[in-house]
Write a structure and sequence with these properties.
Structural class: mainly beta
Family: Belongs to the adaptor complexes medium subunit family. Delta-COP subfamily.
Keywords: Cytoplasm, Cytoplasmic vesicle, ER-Golgi transport, Golgi apparatus, Membrane, Protein transport, Transport
InterPro entries: AP2_Mu_C_sf, Coatomer_dsu, MHD
Shape: elongated
Membrane topology: Peripheral membrane protein
Helix content: 10-25%
Order of helices and strands: HEEEEHEEEEEEEEEEEE
Subcellular location: Cytoplasm; Cytoplasmic vesicle, COPI-coated vesicle membrane; Golgi apparatus membrane
Strand content: over 45%
Number of strands: 16
């Protein structure tokens, strides 16, 4: 940061926070910066945790590609809270790669889990979503339970050139709550006959797909099955499967425990939101 007049220096500082926050957002959360608060319930200090997952799994459950990317953004709407400390607790035992914004005190975060600016006299920018922390988790080859949700598809050849298909899902991470889960299963070309025998949630047949919808998957409702018969068909007809959901719980076990004033450590009321969803989640 160059020395200069106070106004020019402040503008440079704010510009850097915003522009580098935008660069982080382009990787993990390409939502527009300077957007209006999501709800009227947001406090003057608002935190947003956003995670996106890219996962490809094989038919035998092996994970071929796994990458989780996350971004924590901070939005301050009242100048009296410009100089604050955000306390983040990391209870995740997996090898998360954590990266703070260049203007954030890296050592304070590493040793204390505190997000604060390197230049303590500076306030955070007002009325902007500023990216302050990024994280990334890549798949370890030895960990086939890294997926938040496992989906197994078992098509077997039946009588008269048809297939009996059994699909089962199971929540692998008990701390998650997945909502509006959709599993899209392709169907053979032509005009096959489809008979569904058993299901949780609801299903619809749309074009060349069966769309299986489950309202909620959580620790209490962690498994479910869909069974159907298709004729004519071969096992390869039912791949790839695509899975989507929304969630207000995060895969990485990062939480904001408190926000405090930099000057005296007094508590600051804050709100937070969490968004976790897959960009791509397919079983091939």
């Amino acid at each position: 940061m160059k020395l200069g007049s106070r106004g020019a220096d402040a503008d440079t500082f704010v510009s850097r926070l915003r522009s580098e926050g935008d660069a982080a957002a382009a990787v993990a959360a390409p939502a527009a910066v300077d957007r209006a608060p999501a709800t009227a319930n947001n406090k003057d200090v608002h935190l947003r945790f956003e995670e996106r997952l890219n996962l490809t799994a094989g038919r035998d459950g092996d994970i071929q590609n796994f990458e989780l990317s996350g971004l924590l953004t901070l939005r301050i709407s009242n100048e009296q809270f410009g100089r604050i400390h955000v306390h983040v607790d990391n209870k995740d035992t997996r090898p998360l790669q954590l990266q703070t914004h260049p203007n954030v005190d890296k050592e304070a975060f590493r040793s204390e889990g505190v997000i604060r600016l390197k230049q303590a006299q500076r306030p955070f920018p007002l009325h902007s979503d500023v990216g302050v922390l990024k994280w990334r988790l890549a798949h370890a080859p030895s960990d086939d339970r890294a997926a938040p949700l496992s989906v197994n598809c078992w098509p077997s050849e039946g009588a008269n050139g048809g297939c009996d298909v059994n699909i089962e899902y199971e929540l692998e991470q008990d701390h998650l709550i997945l909502s509006d889960v959709s599993i899209v299963i392709p169907l053979p070309t032509g005009n096959p006959t489809v008979v569904v025998h058993q299901w949780e949630g609801t299903y619809t047949q749309k074009g060349r797909s069966i769309i299986w919808n489950i309202p909620v998957i959580n620790k209490q409702q962690k498994t479910g099955t869909l069974e159907f018969t298709v004729s004519p068909a071969i096992p390869n007809d039912f791949f790839p499967l695509n899975v989507s959901w929304t969630s207000d719980t995060s895969l990485a076990m990062l939480t904001a425990t408190k926000v405090t004033q930099a000057e005296d450590g007094s508590a600051v009321d804050f709100s937070q939101e969490i968004s976790f969803h897959p960009d791509k989640y397919e079983i091939v």
